[in-house]
Amino acid sequence: MKRANILRSRCPFIVYRQFKMKFFILHTLFLIYPLLCLSSFYSSDNTKYIFKSGLDGYNTFRIPTTITTISGVVLAFAEGRKNSSSDTGDIDIVLKRSLDGGKTWGELIVVRDDANNVCGNPSPVVDSKTGKIFLLSTWNRGDDSEKEIIDLISNDTRRIYVMHSEDDGLNWTAPKEITSSVKKSNWTWYATGPVHGIQIQKGKKSGRMIIPCDHIVAKTKKYFSHIIYSDDGGNTWEIGGITPQDNVNECTIAEIGRGKLILNMRNYDRTKMNRQISISKDYGESWEKLRFDETLVEPICQASILRYTFKGKKRNFLFFLNPGDKNDRKNMTLRLSRDLGLSWEEKIILHKGPSAYSDITKLPNGNLGCFFEAGLNSPYEGIKFQEINLNNIKW
User: Fold this and answer.
1) Which has the closest alpha carbon to 381: 359, 351, 360, 348?
2) pLDDT tens digits, residue range 171-227?
3) For a surface tag, which of 48, 177, 311, 382 has the fewest beta carbons within 10 Å of its beta carbon?
4) How far is CA 150 from CA 109, 145, 222, in A?
5) Are 96 and 61 spatial neighbours (Cβ–Cβ below 8 Å)?
6) Alpha carbons 242 and 190: distance in angstroms, whole number
């Protein structure tokens, strides 16, 4: 210390260089500080595989969906594919529960296993009035492929079921088939979600539970998105609005106003490598003409959207999660909209490698829980959970 003082007193050049170095360090910190804040907004120390392919008796885990119950239990659903990563064969619906906001997870629970058949596309929704969790899903024979079902040469067809739990996912009712009330006779392929459903919060249809779905019309091979809904607490379900144009299928939904919903859809029209959007102004009973969202790029893949409502004077936001690349399933990207989907501002890449399907939930502590397929060499190496800290957002 004394030596440094002597040098400063004898050499003005050294004093100048030290001042210059300090200025450089302060200037650099000033420039990167906003980036560090943004990183802390999105990053988490709690990124982990909840389902790892090759473990728990399953070859592959796919199709993540998640929801938080009224009592604060986080439920993470997936398809457990027994013998391969194929979309057909022996596939079960499985579940893990977290009692501490996603920090730790319980043992794997098999929600539905129908021998060698396909039980999939788990799509949960919570009834805030009763606390019941409803799980909509699809079924088909394990020896029937998607192509055979579409071509009308399969042994059976795609069927739709509902189950519910009254104890935060520990136990589930027997599957109840609702195909005749939610699938038209000329529809072949059909998918519920796969993503969380919603319950209308405002307006004359408050309490309506909605599951976003898609289907293919027989002999046309045209893909459409639609919704199904229940107005009687989950006892019965019926078909809601169908998109007026095709080339869309797996979709995700959010409430953006009184009677107003946004449907965000996987897009097969490759003249535009973006998500397609439609608005309903009658609680999902009809949908307006589809349009492309110029910001939300995609490689033809499922995605998820979540309305985030703050207490007090803070506004309502939308969060959107998908592989943010035009060509490949990679770069799992979280985006934020401050105007309920009219524009998208901040974004961050949660996983830069291969990634695919996803879902989002609001955690009991107010943070986001992002649940997505990801890996180093393939998106299907497992399903990760990442907690997103919202405390550092600049409101």
Assistant:
1) 351
2) 999 999 999 999 999 999 999 999 999 999 999 999 999 999 999 999 999 999 999
3) 311
4) 32, 9, 10
5) no
6) 13
Dihedral sign for Cα atoms in the order 289, 295, 298, 303: negative
What are the residue boundaries of the structural domains of the chain, listed by start? 1-42, 46-388
Give residue-wise pLDDT tens across range 237-283: 999 999 999 999 999 999 999 999 999 999 999 899 999 999 999 99
- Strand ranges of the sheet holding 274-280, from the earlier edge strand across to the other edge: 248-257, 260-267, 274-280, 291-297
CA-to-CA distance for 276 and 361, rounded, in angstroms?
A: 22
Give the chain's mean pLDDT: 89
Sheet strands side by side (includes 304-308) = 48-52, 382-388, 368-374, 347-362, 330-337, 317-323, 304-308
Q: Can you tell me which residue has the tokens 């009712």? A: 173
Asked if residue 111 lies in contact with residue 122, where contact means CB atoms within 8 angstroms, the answer is: yes
Sorted by sequence, the CB contacts under 8 Å of residue 66 that are 6+ apart come out as 74, 75, 76, 77, 124, 196, 359, 360, 361, 369, 371, 385
Please, what is the angle between helix 12-42 and helix 2-10, to 10°? 120
- Fold of the 46-388 domain: Neuraminidase (2.120.10)
Q: How far apart are CA 277 and CA 197, in angstroms?
A: 17
